[in-house]
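Question thread 4412

I'm putting together a teaching handout and wanted feedback from people who do this every day. The idea is simple: show students a protein as raw sequence, then show them the structure tokens that encode its fold, then repeat with a second protein so they can compare. Below is the first pair exactly as I plan to print it.
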Amino acid sequence: MTFPENLLYTPEHEWVDWAPGTQEPVSVGITSYAAGSLGDIVFVELPAVGTRVASGEVCGELESTKSVSDLYAPVGGEVVEVNAAAVDDPSLINNDPYGAGWLFKVAVEDATGLLTAAKYAELTEA
């Protein structure tokens, strides 16, 4: 399985579209590996705009036909936007996890423990 090289990843299977030093809010989502493991996602609970999230901590929930899973923040900061389309139609997350299925945007204040695509691929192969 390959993962977009321009993204950074977490061991909890989230991705972030962030280049260190960038000041713009970044998009956050779950990886195709996570979406495939969860099965058909039927419900999404995301942090509200204005919520402060901490890197590595639970900030939401994904419910699939198989289970309910915690959603972890890959970076710390303030949530500045949520993807209402993914909340209304959670299948977007399964069908396009790196595009239309993004979950929320964060104004980054803290980022630790992020993995490159190659390191994340190694993790998923283990």
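The second pair follows. I'd like the answer to focus on this one:
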Amino acid sequence: MSELMQTVAIYFLAAIAEIVGCFAFWAWYRLEKSALWLAPGMLSLALFAWLLALSPAEHAGRAYAVYGGVYIAATLIWLRVVEGQRPDHWDLIGGTVCLIGAAIILWGPRAA
């Protein structure tokens, strides 16, 4: 797998893991689901942290900044696929701006 594809996969999978983990807590607290939802939620959040640590960014802060843009886009996919709500054009424009910002932060030229 190319380095670009691997990087995109790491961030996207981390976003899905965080969303799933947070949704487990949401389901327990807001949707009154069983407390048994919390255990897989915590495992998913641990998976998220591990995946984000695999980021090729040299510094944690930069990895987190890039992740933020990917997370926003992934949540819009979640909104559509899982919650059945179609993102509007403002959602799509905002998500695109975030992904462009994430790409600039991750792959922008750095002074040596």
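Top answer:
Good format. For the second protein you could add a caption like this: The longest helix spans residues 3-29. The CA atoms of residues 103 and 109 lie 11 Å apart.
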